[in-house]
Amino acid sequence: MNKLYLIKYGEIALKGKNRYMFEDALLRNIRRSIQKIGSFKITKEQGRILVEPKDGQYDEQEVIDKLTKVFGIIGICPVIKVDTLDFESILECLLNYMQETYEDQTLTFKVEARRSNKSYPLTSLDIARQAGAYLLNHMPNLTVDVHKPQIRVWIELRNSVYIYSEIIPGLGGMPVGTNGKAMLLLSGGIDSPVAGWMIAKRGVAIEGVYFHSHPYTSDRAKEKVVELGRKLSVYTGNFKLHVVPFTEIQMAIYEKCPHAQLTIIMRRIMMQIAEKIALKQEANALITGESIGQVASQTIESLVVTNAVCSMPIFRPLVGFDKQEIVDISEKIDTYETSILPYEDCCTIFVAKHPQTKPKLENILQSEQALENIDQMIEKAIANTEVLLVK
Ligand code: ATP
Ligand code: MG
Fold first, then answer.
1. Which atom of ligand 1 is found nearest the CA of 212?
2. Is ligand 1 within 6 A of the CB of residue 289?
3. Residues 165, 56 share a domain
4. Does residue 174 lie in a domain region?
């Protein structure tokens, strides 16, 4: 029996004329995710994608692990393919499959049939009924339960016939690259990687920008951010990370601005730089890991003052999440262990004891006047930005 994987996708099937674009992107992303672990033929077939191993040189669990990290997939079904539409042969293959898979287990089952080939002489209902009766006759360990079966056995009649009884859930979302690009402000914390992951899940390609304050933040702090980029790249493909030297600007803010406003002014400058880099990279939005009220710089008043500095939309997918909800996702996507490594970040070093929680834009603009040559400093930081391709 020929084993392969039938990939089900959800939302993208609804996209009308754009459907082919979405399917092609999903197909490319699937290929990218498994190309290093075996040799596969990947094809489209009437609302499904098929992944067919060309030989036995692959680890089934590894293939499934990779596919469960590709956005746009809602289910992965290990299937057997029957190359004839002859109904007797289909029944024989079905029996063979069921005997191999469920040997002597006592189980209730139901057969579900679907045919996209409408000229086939049997209707879906006929196929399901006859196949169910056939299995009952040949496998005494099975009984039918049409309401709450322990297993559902699917027969899909397309150009070939596919039989399966297991649907491994995928992540859903949309294929990365089908919804433009955004620039993620990636710190070493728990929140921003999760924020980036959530936007990428909607099909958005992402790049990262990290503000590094050497020597106040160590190489290990930077390595940690690179590692987070690598963890995201499992979902997004290669991850481009822009490392911006931030020390000079941070020192200037520290020396010239009221300490209660350090964080908010720093955040505004980060946003400006991130926006400029985003424009160059043809990204149309920024992403941060902010959540309302989590810290002083994330009150509504602070978010308003931060927004005022740039015109690009800022996506904050975690805005309504509690910390524990964010932690749960970071564990699920495997960034948590890296995020909690103890290396300092620039915000923890240059932080005020009593930061303002309700900053007013006019006061902040007033304080920023003290940063006379900030525009040159920003240009210099961008010019000296290091670009890494993490994979
Ligand atoms: P995180 O866990 O993502 O670090 P946080 O709760 O620690 O978030 P802040 O430190 O206030 O929050 O930062 C808010 C957001 O600003 C971060 O989620 C991130 O998007 C961005 N940010 C903060 N510091 C940096 C940095 N050094 N480089 C890039 N982005 C940063
Ligand atoms: Mg942080």
1. 27
2. yes
3. yes
4. no
- For the entire predicted model, the pTM comes to 0.93
Burial class (CB in 10 A: 0-12, 13-18, 19+), 83: exposed
Nearest to 136 by CA among 167, 91, 75: 91
Please check whether residues 293 and 205 belong to one and the same domain. Answer: yes
The closest residue, in CA terms, to atom 25 on ligand 1 is 187
Q: Examine residue 175 and state whether it is found in any structural domain, yes or no.
A: no
Cα–Cα nearest to 178, from 198, 203, 197: 203
Would you call 186 helix, strand, or coil by DSSP?
A: coil
Q: What is the pLDDT of residue 108?
A: 97
Domain that holds residue 31: 2-169
148 C-alpha to ligand 1 centroid (Å): 48
Q: Is the pLDDT of residue 13 over 70?
A: no
Ion ligand 2 — residues with CB under 5 Å?
187, 189
- Confirm or reject: Cβ of 335 under 6 Å from ligand 1: no
Which residue among 169, 193, 220 closes a domain?
169
Q: How far is the CA of 260 from the centre of ligand 2 (A)?
A: 18
